[in-house]
Design a protein that fits this description.
mainly alpha; 10 helices; 0% strand; Receptor-associated Protein
Length: 271
């Protein structure tokens, strides 16, 4: 997957929010007070969140792939150095192998060194471009070892082990939090099931009472109320799922979009 730049995310937010605002303004001018107005609100939410959710997921996969290939890269550099290659030659040899999206960044690093940049400068540029959590931790260690006059090649092996152990810890954390993400989905669909059962049983009887002007809440009013509740639960529940599952609220955008669409389809078709 390609890298998503910060400016691309900002542009996506601006465009999607502008489109969502246009939908809301149009709905307010033409559909205010009608039941279909709520559907346009959900449409505006999906339009606002969907582009950023996709870009955030693509960027997450790119960063994840970079971090997962770092131990292989460091291991390859150590193996090349043991054959008698210099550090620059070892990096150049490692760039000929496949490391997913890390390969193109590594080739750029080799190109910078061929243009006259030092190893430290090229590695610093590499770290600034990639800017993942593990590169921000490992790159300064290698640069500091180089500046202190030590054998930089010897730093790659323990650094690779550090990266590998960090990845394993992150996978364990995700495995432990995955049930909590599932709970968010289960709770939402249980809510939808309860609402559907209420409308197919209880509110059918209430509609008969409404004809006698004895019902406290009409069927249409109850339908709109539950629609609003499901929309709020889908939006905020998805954000909570992203925070628990991947550690960031932005990671929950995709969950919010999925729950919003699922809730809309369920309530639209079954109530």
């Amino acid at each position: 997957m390609p890298k998503v730049e910060k400016i691309e995310k900002q542009i996506a937010w601006v465009i999607s929010l502008a489109l969502a605002l246009a939908i809301l303004i149009t709905a307010c001018l033409r559909l205010w007070g009608l039941p279909i107005f709520d559907e346009y609100v959900v449409l505006a939410l999906v339009v606002a969140l969907f582009p950023s959710a996709v870009l955030d997921y693509v960027d997450y996969r790119w960063r994840r792939s970079i971090d997962e290939h770092l131990p292989d890269l460091y291991r390859a550099i150590v193996q090349s150095e043991k054959t008698g290659m210099t550090l620059t030659q070892a990096v150049e040899e490692a760039s000929k192998r496949r490391y997913g999206p890390l390969t193109s960044e590594l080739k750029r690093m080799v190109a910078h060194m061929s243009w006259g940049k030092s190893f430290e400068e090229a590695l610093q540029s590499f770290g600034d471009r990639v800017n993942t959590s593990l590169t921000k931790r490992s790159v300064p260690l290698v640069i500091e070892a180089s500046r202190s006059g030590g054998r930089v090649e010897k730093v790659f092996e323990p650094t690779g082990k550090f990266v590998q152990s960090t990845l394993l810890a992150e996978k364990e954390r995700q495995a432990q939090t995955r049930p909590y993400v599932a709970i968010v989905y289960v709770a939402f669909f249980v809510f939808l099931f309860t609402v559907i059962m209420l409308f197919t049983t209880f509110f059918v009887q209430m509609s008969e009472l409404a004809a006698l002007n004895t019902a406290l809440l009409s069927t249409d009013e109850a339908r709109r109320l539950f629609f609003h509740m499901s929309t709020a639960q889908a939006l905020f529940g998805g954000l909570v799922a992203g925070k628990m599952g991947e550690g960031t609220i932005s990671a929950g955008l995709k969950h919010s979009v999925i729950l919003l669409v699922a809730g809309y389809i369920a309530l639209k078709l079954l109530i």
